[in-house]
Amino acid sequence: MRAYIIRRVLLVIPTLFILSVLIFLSVRFLPGDAIDVMLDKAGWIGAVNVDRAALEQMLGLDRPAYVQYGRWIGGIVLRGTLGESLWGGEAIESKIIERLPVTLELGFLAIVIGLLIALPVGVYSAIRQDTVGDYAGRTVAVIGLAMPNFWLGVMVLLYPVIWWGWSPPIELIRFTDDPLGNLGMFLVPSFILGTAMAASTMRMTRTMMLEVLRQDYVRTAWAKGLSERLVVVRHAMKNAFIPVVTLVGLQLPLLVGGSVIMENIFVLPGLGRVLLTALTDRDYPVVMGVNLCFGAVVLGVNLLIDLAYPYLDPRVRYR
């Protein structure tokens, strides 16, 4: 197990390197650049006498692309810094440290809500195959897969305002200040993200439970006269949940994308809003730093999921 963990951690390094190259190149293919945005905003306030060449030199954007990448990746490796924003010069890591807890809380609650919905419904649909409850669960899952979460978020935000005059709080309520207020602020966007995740997870849970329940050792448990609860919980669920856990790990990038939308719809000051603002302003260092942070989080969580396999199935061994 220790050797496997070391290999996986070492594998993260070249993965993040390749990811950093892809992120750096992708933001450079965006139409326009930071200088165009700055000159456009300068024109709005009447500052027309702005030297583009001097501005590019001051921000380091006059250098070749490979030099800019070398300076960025060198700052990460040698100084542990992600650089500074082109707008104001704020350190990117300070932005991430400030906003990351909001995004993590939103994603964590979405995962918890999604699993609380998907696992019981998926197990019930499998052990009560082709019943009314099974058809109802599968129908809801298909609706959840077909319904875009950004549309659902807008509808959930719009209709309460029209009908009851209710709107979510604009200022962040921190958990340390008001735990109930904080959970109330995150509950609706987390539920919307969680339902999208629950739909596919429920279908996977049902499929794997049906497969496991047809195995010989499960039939033997039934033949021994064990209760349904004991057969399902002790003999079937752990083996059926291995592909489900894998699916949860694969859905993390979708949760990251969903968090960008939900944070902007519900005015949550997380990394999603920072990323969207940076894309609008063509703030390359912020876009690269936030995406690299998201990538590191996804890699770390997938490593933890891989390490959970031996606890779900003792036959799994890492060497």
What is the radius of gyration?
A: 24 Å
N- to C-terminal separation? 6 Å
The H/E string reads HHHHHHHHHHHHH
Choose one word for the global shape.
globular
Rounded average pLDDT: 81
3D architecture notes:
This protein has helices at residues 2-28, 34-44, 52-59, 65-79, 92-127, 132-146, 149-164, 179-213, 216-223, 228-250, 252-265, 271-281, 284-312. With 319 residues, it is mainly alpha-helical.
Q: Gist?
A:
The protein has 319 residues and is mainly α. Helix content is 78%, strand content 0%.
List the helices and strands and how they pair.
Elements (H helix, E strand, L loop, with lengths): L1 H27 L5 H11 L7 H8 L5 H15 L12 H36 L4 H15 L2 H16 L14 H35 L2 H8 L4 H23 L1 H14 L5 H11 L2 H29 L7
Kindly list the characteristics that best describe this protein.
13 helices; 319 residues; mainly alpha
